[in-house]
Fold:
Amino acid sequence: MPGDSQCMSTSLDWLNGRFIVFDGPDGSGKTTQFDRFVEYCRSNNHDVTLVREPGGTQIGEQVREILLDPRNTCMSITCEMMLYMSSRAQLIDQVIGPTLSAGGTVLADRFISSTLAYQGTGGGIDRKAILDIGDIVLRNFHPDLTVIFDVDEETSRSRRSSQPDRIEQRDQVFHERVRQGYLEQVAEDPDRYLLIDASMSQDEVFASLEDGIRNRMAAMPARS
Structure:
């Protein structure tokens, strides 16, 4: 695994107290790379707390079922956004907040960056409205780094599930807006975002990911 062998015996203490989000359009390969990075951490004896959105708690998983159920075609985009935020609030209170407060490492498969891209740029909800609600939900537990896996819509469409959920079922124009939403977030806050070209091979993507996270974390002040 590129990026792994040279670091197998290296301490990952630089991840202590860090909150890193893996995000990107459906079909970007985000979850595959998330799983690989988790294994990389564990193979280096570094304990990590994993969360996914929506979900990650008993309540959040129930919300997830509602959000992704293809039968819920009448759900408004505002209702959708608020349900994502509700799941996130529970996740912050129950898992993310306590873990970070104890100096642990949190790795998240999606976070508020997804809401900004999908319900914001994709769905038309005002960005400021999402961020205002996000301030209430997140409190001080903002990600140290959000990794965006970028791939063109044609490629991501070819990678998406053959049994798409309610969000994945939306049309190409919607998914193109979502991708643009992610790219806009990266451009607006480059210090907090890491853009990864996900069109490369899985090994090449992982090598870029591992190097990128390590370099970004090294540039941040150490956690006390």
Q: What stands out?
A: The chain has eight helices and five strands. The domain at 5-9+21-218 is CATH 3.40.50.300 (Rossmann fold).
